[in-house]
Write a structure and sequence with these properties.
The chain is mostly helical. It contains nine helices and no strands.
Length: about 190
Amino acid sequence: MSRKPSVRPGGRSTRVQQSVHDAVRELVAETGRDALTVPLIAARAGVTPSTVYRRWGTVAELLSDVAVQHLRPDAPPGDHGTLAADLAAWAEQFLDEMGSPSGRSYLRDALLGDPDGGNAGRCSDFAADQLGAILGRAAERGEPAPGVEAVLDGVVAPMMYRILFRPGGLDGAYAHSLVATLLTGPA
């Protein structure tokens, strides 16, 4: 008979992760990211450096993990009554959060310390899950809706490119225009 590993929500592993993440955020605010070292982080978190090395490996991978946790949405997307309104509101909020200086910094961290692409995939899943909720509501209302991949390609991908490489001129109107083009076709 096989035995499943026991999951301990709120166990030691969770407490260690939380204390290390808190230490990283505090130290970045106090000293800046360039001053971060594993021993400094470990001392602030109250763990041994070997604990940090064993779990994260490098400061870059730890920063990536912290970034992914920060980029996780805290609430389901708002319901504004129509697919167009829901997508426009979500896209504007996404652009505002990810396009801010701290959002761009978290995005860079999430990608730089991610050698296997797992954190990038988790971030993509966050957006896909939010969009899935929006599209599911539209289907329940009987509205025709594109698929999640179409919204990722038509709305999220262009915003991410602009956020990372051409951040000027990003505003709510840009987000709304992407949604309108997706739903009605090019003007």
